[in-house]
Structure formats: C-alpha cells, structure tokens
Amino acid sequence: MSDYNAEYHTRKTYDSVRARCGLHSTLPASWTNYAEIGVELCDRWKESYRNFVADMGLRPSKRMTLDRIDNALGYFKENCRWASYFVQQYNKAKKPKNYHFDGTHSKKWVVSFQVEGKTINMGRFDDEATAKKVAKGAHRLIDRFIETGLLQ
Predict the structure, then answer these.
(1) 0.85 cut: is pTM over it?
(2) How many Å apart are CA 58 and CA 26, to the nearest integer?
(3) Are 81 and 69 spatial neighbours (Cβ–Cβ below 8 Å)?
(4) In what order do the strands lie in the sheet with 118-125?
(5) How far is CA 127 from CA 99, 106, 111, 124, 145, in A?
(6) What is the DSSP string of 88-146?
(7) Gap between the Cα atoms of 54 and 89, Å rounded
(8) Burial class (CB in 10 A: 0-12, 13-18, 19+), 145
(9) Could you read off the pLDDT of 45-91 as tens digits, one per residue?
C-alpha cells in the first residue's frame, strides 16, 4: 500500500503557491522572485483551497507538481496543470544544457537527459557543435510531446 496522501500533498502544494505569490507572512527566500516579478494567484484560488481542488483536482502523485504552462502568467485554472518534474524542467525559457565533455573516459561530448531519476544517453560526439545540435533537437522533440500532452 502506498504512503501517498493526495489530500495532504495537494494542500501543501496550495500553501506553497500562496506563499510564492506573497500571501503568507513567512516567505522562503527562494520564492521571493515569484511575488517580486508579479506572479499572482487568481482570486478564485485566493478565496479557498476548495476552489483550487475543484479546478485542479487532487495532486495525482508525488511525482506530479503544479506547473504554470506559460511562466509569464500567474496561477489560474487555464494556465496550470499537474506535471512531472521532467516536464517542468523543460517548461522554462532557458532549457537545460544536457551535454558535457567527458574528459575522464571517452574524451567525447556526451548528450544525456534525466527522466524520473534515470539517465537517458543520446550519444557521444567528437565535437561540441554536434552535441549541442543533438541536444537542441531533443529539446524540440520534448517540447512537442509536452505541447501535445504526451508527456505530463
């Protein structure tokens, strides 16, 4: 039996979102940039936790967290979804680099991705330009999967 409590984790998510938007007196330093840049919580969700759950449902699993689809906008039903950490990592203006030089073993450029704690290797390349191209192509593919809902 799983020790996952959807109600508890959904409430924690809701409280975290409220804090990020400056609606709690104790705001972790790492969250101040949300409120400072004007990321707001919609009035309906400010009103109650019940409204938040009615719109978003309970958090599906520990691996899913609340993600803003368009990061230039705030928290409201049409702009939020439950998404995996992997999807959230790629839902940023600045994508992760995902390539590095392996100076220890192969002496080549390595392209790899982390998905749910597992490393997916895309290949080893002789030059940085090729590795960068492969990583960018993978980013585009991941973005398309996210847009179409194939990845959550």
Answers:
(1) no
(2) 25
(3) yes
(4) 99-102, 108-115, 118-125
(5) 11, 12, 11, 9, 28
(6) HHHSSSS----EEEETTTT-EEEEEEEETTEEEEEEEESSHHHHHHHHHHHHHHHHHHH
(7) 26
(8) middle
(9) 999 999 999 999 999 998 889 999 888 899 999 999 998 887 887 77
